Amino acid sequence: MDKIQSLTGMLDLYEDGDNTNLSSKIFETERRIKKIFSSYQLNEIRTPALEDTNLFKRSVGDVSDIVNKEIYSFNDRNDKSIALRPEGTASVIRAIIEKKLDQSNHKLWYMGPMWRYERPQKGRYRQFYQAGIEILGYKEGSPEFEMISIICSIIKEFNLKDCFIKINHLGSQENKEAYCKALTDYLAPFKDKLDSKDLERLTRNPLRVLDSKNEETILVLKGAPSIKSFLEPSALQLLEDIKNQFGDICSIEIDHSLVRGLDYYSGFVFEAISSNLGAQDSFLGGGRYDHLCSKLGGKNLPSIGMAIGIERFASLIQDFTLPNKIVSFITLTSNLEPKTYKIAHQLRSINKNVILDTELAEGSLKAKLRRANKNNSDYVIIIGEEELAKGTAVIKPLKDELEEQKIVSIEELFSFYKTI
Ligand code: HAM
């Protein structure tokens, strides 16, 4: 029989105790990012993976590559076109409007899989995970600083090197329109140099031409007008202020050619880039989208958000040390000894910062110690027939060479465990 395999561009992730593999880094990234989100008093929101396809057409934009080519959409049994979400922002706004929460402020986060039918390559998958934030109902100003502060906290938490944050401003609606006209006028004589994709962008959303990967277009763009000269002084000041205040925490660069791939952006936009990612160099992106809520039928709700690509982010982590100590709990009795499980349970309840890994498999002490080493354990607690009879346990340090193995009473074991 043919083997059934996973679909192209979709990963199975599983944690095997080795903190150098991508899966472990992904899970650890998710755990720590959630803690950072909570420390900024953000609330979780979880929306369905499937939505009405029209939601993405009206938000992400039917000019964007995402809706044009990358969306996983199909008809359900009632012939309604539904889609696997390619991103989280549109769903969050849809939910907020539906619950009539679009007249108040919200600070939200989400984490989950997204789907885009892209050509898979390093750092680009068809199912990938995002951790996102949406700050809703606040005008330009404080939320921009809060957003950059969160990004810096996340970069610092994992000690990421060789990365920087690019920031830009797309201006007000009028600024944007004036700039689009100037860009279109400039590009008009070069139309024969643009490929079909850029020509389509030029007619439907000229700003997106700035994102072209076509070498000829990139060359032509060298002489193009910059959005800088179309921006209000307050927009330029915001970029300078962010760079000045946070530039010593994370590297920040003002890049007036930064435009984002989704249609809903207006105002402040940003991306975090790493030179260690290859062609897919952006591990996080976002910006202000003040008109999305009203465009989807809700109230006027000025908003800003961002999403981190978890796989890309995790692949940048050099190494991480687990925040908690790990102790392996090994029993060496020929019969199942219920009492040992009670001891393990009591140990767990007296120190919740320690990860207690109870060895469930049968086997020799040697095999069990090998596993404890592989699991990165700091200590092993061993209870065999003899220890059980005498009411003792063996504590064996695995990492600290100066510390010696010792035999202790169960009371002493509890006191030791409390202080790990
Ligand atoms: P985005 O730039 O399309 O923005 O995606 C955010 C991040 O998701 C990217 O920087 C990248 O790391 C990751 N990503 C995107 N596509 C893939 C893929 N095929 N494989 C792996 N990782 C990928 C958004 O999605 C917006 N919703 C962000 C936002 C929130 N803006 C405002 N609020």
3D structure, described in words:
- This protein has 420 residues and is α+β, with helices and mostly antiparallel strands.
- Strands 1-5-6-11-10-9-7-8 form an 8-stranded mixed β-sheet.
- It starts with 21 loop residues before the first helix and ends with a helix.
- Helix 1 (22-39) packs antiparallel against helix 5 and helix 12 runs parallel beside helix 15 (410-418).
- Helix content is 36%, strand content 22%.
- The protein is built from 15 helices and 16 strands.
- The structure holds histidyl-adenosine monophosphate (HAM).
* Average predicted confidence as pLDDT: 92
State the end-to-end CA separation.
Answer: 52 Å
- Proportion in β-strands: 15-25%
Poorly predicted runs are: none
The description of the largest β-sheet is: 8 strands, mixed
In spatial order, strands of the major sheet run 1-5-6-11-10-9-7-8
